[in-house]
């Protein structure tokens, strides 16, 4: 199956420093991938380079097998890739409903897989607070809203960067349940999260970045059976 999104020998960085040093990674339709690695190894930079927010300095980004390395970020997003960014990206002065409506657009082939009522059904908590302003929501509710906004674009691939960071345990569980539901709906997911056990319980494959290249890739069971690798590359 042709990957939705692929990095081939991808290199990028900031200023004089190189962060990614030739990353190969592919996400196929319906796959759930855990992008893992210790702090500062380049996970967020990889997401930003895949989406075009950080320019590639070498290698290629492919979307559906076609070179997209020079494509603008909004064009990549229109091909059905939605990112829930670290830090959430909710409009604080707009209501929950307005935040969702503003994000709405049809998916890559014109389909609307996630109309407002389906998003509201996934997040009853947001439905109850539909008139509240973004900045009146708790951190977990803002995270739900951010995921809801991403779903309003009917993505084929949802990228989640630190979606559970800073949330209380119950709220974390609610976010993991949501990611599971998104997955079951057939959407591919690329998940970056510090909660290693939760990520491994969810994904089909773990890809571990070490110093800007892919150091390990395989099924979560194989990683869990290898405490040496878990400790060396993930610090657990
Ligand atoms: N805007 C920026 N300008 C300069 N350097 C940056 C910038 N963003 C990240 N870096 C540096 O790039 C390296 C990789 O950071 P990145 O955020 O991609 O790592 P990460 O694996 O996502 O880690 P974390 O879990 O800490 O976010 C780090 O050394 C970081 O300091």
From TrEMBL:
CDD domains: ABC_TM1139_LivF_branched. Signal peptide: none annotated. It holds the Pfam family ABC_tran. Gene3D superfamilies: P-loop containing nucleotide triphosphate hydrolases. Residues 5-236 form the ABC transporter domain. GO terms for molecular function: ATP binding. InterPro entries: AAA+_ATPase, ABC_transporter-like_ATP-bd, ABC_transporter-like_CS, BCAA_Transport_ATP-bd_LivF, P-loop_NTPase. Belongs to the ABC transporter superfamily. PANTHER family: ABC TRANSPORTER ATP-BINDING PROTEIN, HIGH-AFFINITY BRANCHED-CHAIN AMINO ACID TRANSPORT ATP-BINDING PROTEIN LIVF. This is ABC transporter ATP-binding protein. It comes from Craurococcus roseus.
């Amino acid at each position: 199956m042709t990957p939705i999104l692929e990095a081939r020998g991808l290199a990028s960085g900031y200023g004089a420093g190189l962060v990614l040093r030739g990353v190969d990674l592919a996400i196929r339709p319906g796959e759930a991938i855990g992008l893992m690695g210790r702090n500062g190894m380049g996970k967020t930079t990889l997401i930003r380079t895949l989406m075009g927010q950080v320019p590639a300095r070498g290698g290629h980004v492919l979307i559906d097998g076609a070179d997209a390395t020079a494509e603008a970020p909004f064009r990549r997003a229109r091909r059905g890739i939605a990112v829930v960014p670290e830090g959430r990206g909710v409009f604080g002065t707009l209501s929950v409903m307005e935040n969702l409506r503003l994000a709405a657009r049809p998916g890559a082939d014109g389909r609307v897989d996630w109309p407002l009522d389906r998003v509201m059904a996934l997040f009853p908590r947001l439905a109850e607070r539909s008139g509240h302003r973004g900045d009146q929501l708790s951190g977990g509710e803002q995270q739900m809203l951010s995921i809801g906004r991403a779903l309003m674009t009917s993505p084929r691939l949802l990228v989640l960067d630190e979606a559970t960071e800073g949330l209380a345990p119950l709220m974390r569980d609610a976010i993991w349940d949501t990611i599971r539901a998104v997955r079951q709906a057939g959407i591919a997911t690329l998940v970056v999260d510090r909660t290693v056990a939760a990520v491994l319980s969810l994904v089909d494959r773990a890809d571990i970045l070490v110093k800007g290249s892919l150091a390990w890739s395989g099924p979560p069971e194989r990683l869990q059976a290898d405490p040496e690798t878990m400790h060396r590359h993930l610090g657990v």
